[in-house]
TrEMBL record:
SUPFAM superfamilies: Glucocorticoid receptor-like (DNA-binding domain) (SSF57716). Keywords: Metal-binding, Zinc, Zinc-finger. It comes from Desulfosarcina alkanivorans. GO terms for molecular function: zinc ion binding. Pfam families: zf-dskA_traR (PF01258). It comes from the Bacteria. A zinc finger (dksA C4-type) spans 84-108. The keyword DNA damage does not apply. The lineage of its organism: Bacteria, Pseudomonadati, Thermodesulfobacteriota, Desulfobacteria, Desulfobacterales. This is DksA/traR C4-type zinc finger family protein. Residues 80-113 form the Zinc finger DksA/TraR C4-type domain. The keyword Zinc applies.
Length: 113
């Protein structure tokens, strides 16, 4: 990976972190406890409780993504950055640009599926 690519990737990771942080705030707002008051009907409340569960799953996923992105940003200047966790071959730059939090090369990721 060239220095330019590394810098481009670092900028991309920062943008992603901003975006996912926005998602996290939105999911947090949507995961507020469902009020038991009778202003909304029972079925509406059931639907709200249902989507609360979905939002909590999305929130957990967004947080995990942000943690991986932050780790990528912290380690981007290290020698090991961009090496596949399994086979230790360099991960294709195009793959990192599309998915900066990727820890596996395409071959290893495919093998695990
Ligand atoms: Zn690999």
């Amino acid at each position: 990976m060239t220095k330019d690519e590394r810098e481009q990737l670092a900028g991309l990771i920062r943008d992603r972190i901003d975006a996912v942080t926005g998602d996290i705030d939105a999911f947090k707002a949507a995961s507020m406890p469902v009020s038991p008051d009778n202003a909304i009907g029972r079925l509406t409340r059931m639907a709200a409780i249902d989507s609360k569960g979905i939002n909590e799953a999305a929130l957990a996923k967004a947080r995990a993504t942000r943690a991986r992105l932050e780790k990528a940003l912290r380690t981007i200047d290290s020698e090991d950055f961009g090496l596949c966790r399994d086979c230790e071959e360099p991960i294709a730059v195009a793959r990192l640009m599309a998915m900066p939090e990727a820890a596996l090369c395409v071959a290893c990721a495919t093998r695990r599926e």
